[in-house]
Amino acid sequence: MTRDRGSAGWFKREKFQLIEQLKAIDSFAAAARSFQTLVQMGDDSDTEVRSALHTAAVVHYGRPFSNNRSAGGARFALGVIKKHAKYDGEIHRQLIVLRNKLIAHSDHDYADGRLYAKNFTLERGSEQFEVIVGATLVTQTVHMLLDTPLAERCLMHVKAAEEAAHTDLQERLGEFVKAGQQCPAAFKAARSATPRPSIRAGTFNLSPNQPSAPLPNVLLNPHAVLTLPPLTIVGGYAYRGYGVQVDVSTTVSWKEDDGSEGSVAVAVMPNAEQG
Question: What is the count of structural domains for the chain?
């Protein structure tokens, strides 16, 4: 835990990092769906569809580890998923190399390309003349994944990455909320100049007659609260959303006019779905 936990600077940094980790989980989930579909399709299915699924899976998985940074400078930490029992270092390295060298980019050392000249030899007595009469360009790269066991191994690893990152994010988000409860002034100071409205979880009367208050389960629909990317042509696409939500119980205390103390326990509702 950092020394400045609970400061305005900590809240700002943590917010950016939490959002970037959420994006990483969304990418892992998308990669898992592509590998899952690839495994289910079998060896006799359309080769172009299988190729597209493999490409999508590799690009989705590699995105959190690319050199692109967020506005806050955050980048997904590999150590989060390395702790999972089903993390496969060899598969991770393979997917990153595929993404960086062959699929998202074309590296000379991995995607071989050559030019062959077609020569015509003329003989005139003891003399020989070689004349170029044509040329051929050839290249090759990965088109699709043929080995089903390898696809299943990739799927297991990507699911492990998604699960590990999701569990870690819920813990960090819960810690973020606890820090906000403990340091409300710094939490408010860390908000942007144009803050978005907070979620209203409810209003309760503070009195000894109401010693506890249930915390309602409030889930947000990403499509309802987020803006679409600023593309020139926005229509014609399907947009996916992903969200993680936590509730953290707390206690609100106060002093009555007669000097006695009162409190209300704001508690998470039993069996409330988290997601």
Answer: 2
